[in-house]
Every structure is written in structure tokens, then in C-alpha cells.
Amino acid sequence: MKEPYAMPRASSTPRAAGLPVEAEINVSRLRLRTFIGFNEDERRKKQDVVIDLMIRYRLRDGVFEDQVADALDYKVVTKAVIDLVENGRFLLLEKLVADILAVCSEHPDVTFSRVTVDKPHALRFADSVSLTLDYRPEQAGSMRLLEKAS
Question: What is the b/e burial string over 13-35, where b = at least 16 CB atoms within 10 angstroms of the residue's CB?
């Protein structure tokens, strides 16, 4: 009787066995509070922001053997984002999103990341205003322009 799938031989690498080479981590609807905006009221009291993170990264072979050190630790990334947002002060949504994107893109295996920040009730007749920025390693220099402008 034929088995439904063949297990890779112990000597083969995960790449040779046809396992994925990239993974995507998504953190959805992270709800935090920060100082965001340039109006007097916005600079005196924290406001709610809702953050979505997407990080695509190269997988190392060790993750298929449960080697924790070879994985991208999304808990570490999320804690760094929380610290940045809750302890920061931002005039512009662009600066906030760019700073979060920089945290999400620090790991050398990151091939793409996207950050969206919603600012609920920013406009009177809208549920939210949001801004999205993407990171690709080959465009890393363009992020520096945002850092200088803010």
C-alpha cells in the first residue's frame, strides 16, 4: 500500500524537500494609546491607535526542526512596537508609521513588511483615518527621507 505522502529523508534539507522558503507573520488590530497629532488637545492627552503589522521573512532550515533561535520572534517585535508607541510622541501619522515599520524591518531575514495605523475618530464623520507604509530591503534608503522630514 502506498503512503499518502512521502516524508523527507533525514539527510535532505527542508529546501530540497520542497518546504516553503518564506513565511508571513500578521499581528492584527493591536490597540494602543499614544500622543499623536499637532493640535493642542492631541498633544495633552493620549489617543487610541489601532495597528496592523505584516512581516514577510526568509525561513531558516532550523525552524522545520523546531529550533527557536532560527525563528523570527514576533513577541519581541510586538513588545518593541508597544514600547515605541506607548512611550512616544508624534506630530504626524507618517512618522509614527515609519518608526513602527523600522522596528518591524530590523531583522536581517525580513524581505517585506507593511504597517497600517488607524487613528479612530480623527475626522468628525469618519470611523477612522489610516496610513500604510511598506518596507522592502532594496528601498531602505527611502525610509531615511521620512526620518529626516519628521
Answer: ebeeeeeeeeeebebeebebebb
